[in-house]
Design a protein that fits this description.
Blueprint: H1 3-21, E1 32-33, E2 39-40, H2 42-55, E3 60-64, E4 78-86, H3 88-93, E5 99-106, E6 109-117, E7 122-127, E8 131-134, E9 137-139, E10 151-155, H4 156-160, E11 173-177, H5 180-188, E12 194-197, E13 201-202, H6 203-215, E14 219-221, E15 236-237, E16 240-243, H7 248-255
Parallel strand pairs: 3-4, 10-11, 10-12
Antiparallel strand pairs: 1-2, 4-5, 5-6, 6-7, 7-8, 8-9, 12-16, 13-15, 14-16
């Protein structure tokens, strides 16, 4: 199977997910709390079923926020890492900062991905071999090399907790936004210059968007500066930094960590 075939599968899966979401109205949907305290809606479950049916192959692993984890994925070379609705809280509140996120990981590396944000009519899809396409047009990370005025997307919840205050006196421009995957996809498509989260996130939050950043020519690191790895036994990551290529050094210096290129 070629990488173009992988991208086509992702596109078809996201199209089916979009159709499944049409019967739900953001801001007018009930939810319940999962064991960890995160919200769950019928839309999350419905989209998870659609993605699994469209994507899972016999020799491929599966990791989803809304599926019971199966350790057999650790023995698979190719693994789908998905979040049926990334930004469920925003979805419940009717805030248009949520998306469906799909990532394909090979040997721990995010090689293809897609993010669909229905409220923004935004589809960003791509791979390490085919590049990035935004709503049918070729895209890629920005050519920014200067931190002055660089647009960095921040977590709304992290902003509320005061975790971004130390960056307000730096030259970057900060915009808060929900959905980790959506923020990453905007960096991959050149609609923002960087995004990072220095607190733990799960692989399903990050994999699809990380694939798009890489496909667009950008870099994605862990909080220690090493390249991010996926399909680990524990899917909880320490955090990540995603940047346009020209900002790798400046951002690492700003954050006070070393980059492993």
């Amino acid at each position: 199977m070629s990488r173009a075939d992988d991208v086509e599968r992702i596109a078809e899966a996201l199209s089916a997910a979009g159709e499944a979401l049409e019967r739900f109205t953001p801001g007018e949907i009930t939810s319940e709390l999962k064991d960890g305290g995160d919200p769950l809606t019928a839309a999350d479950t419905a989209v998870n079923e659609v993605l699994a049916a469209a994507l899972r192959g016999d020799d491929e692993g599966w990791l989803s926020e809304e599926s019971t984890d199966d350790d057999s994925r650790l023995d698979r070379r190719r693994v789908w890492v998905v979040d049926p609705i990334d930004g469920t809280r925003e979805f419940i509140d009717g805030i248009p900062e949520w998306c469906v996120s799909v990532g394909l990981v090979e040997d721990g590396v995010p090689v293809a991905g897609g993010v669909l944000s229905p409220p923004n009519r935004c589809l960003i899809i791509g791979s390490d071999e085919t590049g990035v396409v935004h709503n049918g047009r070729p895209a890629g990370t920005t050519g920014t090399t200067d931190l002055r005025g660089a647009l960095v997307l921040a977590s709304r919840s992290e902003m509320k907790r005061g975790e971004w205050e130390r960056f307000f006196s730096t030259p970057i421009a900060v915009r808060n936004m929900g959905s980790v995957a959506y923020k990453l996809s905007l960096v991959g498509a050149g609609l923002a210059d960087a995004t990072w989260t220095l607190v733990p996130k799960n692989e399903w939050d990050v994999a699809g968007g990380a694939a798009l950043v890489r496909a667009g020519g950008g870099r994605v690191f862990g909080t220690g500066g090493a390249n991010v790895a996926f399909n680990r036994a524990d899917p909880l990551m320490d955090g990540f930094i995603a940047v346009a290529p020209g900002l790798c050094g400046p951002v690492m210096e700003l954050l006070g960590i070393g980059a492993n290129r």
